[in-house]
């Protein structure tokens, strides 16, 4: 609700990408073990951070290299996970998607605009996570925007043995890199 009125979300290319990602991955080989990981909840951000750490490590592919460009397969992950992150922000905060009017289907250029007017590029945030590592996670972005900490995600007992929970590092410097103002 906004100003006491219900807000009807506008479907965008970013929303459609997030929904397609969830539909495709919810029953996939990894997320099938934790289908609730893709429910657009706040805890799903902590779960996604943990799963990203397990799948791709916590050190990053090119820490601090501003000119890093992701390979094509990684770019697909960035668009999927960025769309998911943005959709969670839109559902859990007073926020909405803002698509580039010149390229309304361009998910990479989509922004989430919050109640303070801050424009956040979720795909850029996910790209920073891949570049710099686990300190720039999805849950850390939400905490930086709202001041609300998301508790760590704990895998269910039926989770595959290779997944373990490690807390996400959080530093003021990492938080400062999360917001595109």
Give a short overview.
The chain is mainly α. The protein is built from 6 helices and 3 strands.
Features of this protein?
181 residues; mainly alpha; three-stranded antiparallel β-sheet; 6 helices; 41% helix; 6% strand; globular; disordered C terminus
Largest sheet: 3 strands, antiparallel
Q: What is the total tally of β strands?
A: 3
Strand content range: 5-15%
Count of DSSP helices?
Answer: 6
The termini sit apart by 24 Å
Average pLDDT, to the nearest integer? 82
In the sheet with the most strands, the strands line up as: 1-2-3
Order of helices and strands: HHHEEEHHH
Helix fraction bin: 40-55%
Rg over CA atoms:
16 Å
Q: Which residues sit in consecutive blocks of at least 5 with pLDDT less than 50?
A: 160-181
- Indicate the structural class: mainly alpha
Shape: globular
Describe this structure in words.
The protein is mostly helical and 181 residues long. The protein contains six helices and three strands. The protein has helices spanning 13-26, 42-56, 72-92, 122-132, 138-146, 172-176; strands at residues 95-98, 111-114, 119-120. A three-stranded antiparallel β-sheet has the order 1-2-3. Strand 2 (111-114) and strand 3 (119-120) form a beta hairpin. Helix 1 (13-26) crosses helix 3 (72-92) and helix 3 crosses helix 4 (122-132). The chain is globular and about 45 Å long. The two termini are 24 Å apart. Mean pLDDT is 82; it is low at 160-181.
